[in-house]
Amino acid sequence: MDIARFPDCVKLLDHLGLYLRDHAKVRILVISETGEPLVDVNSWEVMEKLHKLAEPERFTHLRLQKSPALEFLLFEGQFQDREIMSYVIRQMNNTKFKAQGSNVVLTVKIKEDGYEYPTVEEWETYFKTINGKKQWQECSPGERSDTVIIKNLPTKWFSLDSNNPKPCERFLKDALALFGQIRKVDYEDCVEDGEVSDDVTSLGNQFGIPVTFNAYIQYQNYASFKAAMGGLKGKQLMRLFPGQKPTFSPFVVDYDRAGFMADRTHKIRKAERERLAEEAKRKHEAYMKQQNELMKKQLEKRQKKKRKLEEKKIEEDKRQKDNTTEKKSQNKNNEGEMKEVETLEDECKQVAAQLLKGVLLKVATMERERLMEQRQDVMKRYSEEKKRQEDEIKMVQEDQAKSAEAMKVREKELREKLMKKFKQFEEKKQKTQDKIQKKKHIII
Could you write out the DSSP letters of every residue in 157-203? Predict the structure, then answer.
């Protein structure tokens, strides 16, 4: 997203993407139409409904304020700019909807959230009460109207190292020099979550890392202080880089009433910071010394373990060498024994071969005799079977001759019967023709 889309922006630090924009904050009151308590109404569901009612626009920040009673729900919302805020106020004000899971009808009241801001009369009256009739130049720095306090600034936006968030005083000076010449700056950490948008609020404060801080800006003259107080009125901080969505962080502006930037308190803080830095340095050195001793002990332990392993390895190698020598002598003995065994095996094979040869000859003779007997038996059975087959063939031939003779006799009988019937038929035929001829003559 381009900065040209935000013509009302005031540039603070271009390389950090920091700008000032008009405040666009609203207060939303959700009440029952009948005035009954909102006991069965879920505040998260109401918040989701508010997001839907604001569409197509969206809140950059919306949270529930602590309500003293259950008669209403109070929300605080933030928009990207005042134009969107005005549009959403017109669209959402006096809208009604039914709470999910109940029959309670809720009404939405929304208006721009006013903000308290110190006036010129307030700080002039305050310092006049403290300093009496002294002129501004006669008062000591920090004890006059010269220091602007900006609360709840995101620490990450003003830090040099994102891994170790800590505000950079040079960035603060460069940003706030917009309103005049600065004498000095200082800050104090504030771990409370403010109203910073989603990319700023994080779990950092759970680990002791400050999320926001309060900046103290002391100007050289009253005109610069007044210009800063006027220029920061009704503004919020915006961070925008090309091609990214903008993020917003509201802040609170006040003037220094406690003399935080007075020279005496500044010296005390400086001394305290130096003491803390020295203590941190001493703790760090003690820690590093402890770590070095621990590492030294671990190194000695590792070296001792390494020596033990080397000694163990040497013993193992020696044992393996002795085992190798013993194995060689055993192998020689085994070779002699193996030769004796092989000689015995050869002798056994020769004896077995001779015995086997005699046995095989005897077995072969017996097998031959058995085969000859079996052959004679087979030839005898074959002769008997052949004779039986010849007898059967002879009987079949005799039966066939008898059948052929019977067939011839039967055929002769049938032929005679057929010739007899044929003659009878011819006689009947002749008689029939004679009758027909007689009838013809009679008719004629």
Answer: GGBS-TTS--B-HHHHHHHHGGGS-EEEEEEEEE-S--S--TTT--S
- How many Å apart are CA 121 and CA 357, to the nearest integer? 141
Instruction: Give 231-255 as a 3 state SS string.
Output: HCCCEEEEECCCCCCCEEEECEEEE
C-beta contacts of 200-205 below 8 A and 24+ residues apart: 200/154, 200/156, 200/157, 200/247, 200/249, 204/165
Q: Which of 155, 128, 158 is nearest to 144 (CA)?
A: 128
Q: How far apart are CA 313 and CA 321, in angstroms?
A: 12
Cβ–Cβ < 8 Å for 183, 216? no
- Residue pair 147/221 in contact by the 8 Å Cβ criterion: no
At residue 59, what are phi and psi to the nearest 5 degrees? -75, 140
Cα–Cα distance, 374 to 368 (Å, whole number): 10
Q: What is the pTM of this model?
A: 0.55
Residue 72 class from Cβ within 10 Å (0-12 exposed, 13-18 middle, 19+ buried)?
Answer: middle
Helix (H, G, I), strand (E, B) or coil at 16: coil
pLDDT of residue 217 exceeding 90, the answer is yes
Count of CB atoms situated within 10 Å of the CB of 312:
10
pLDDT at 197 over 80: no
**Residue 213 three-state SS:** strand
Which helix (DSSP H) or strand (DSSP E) does residue 3 occupy?
none
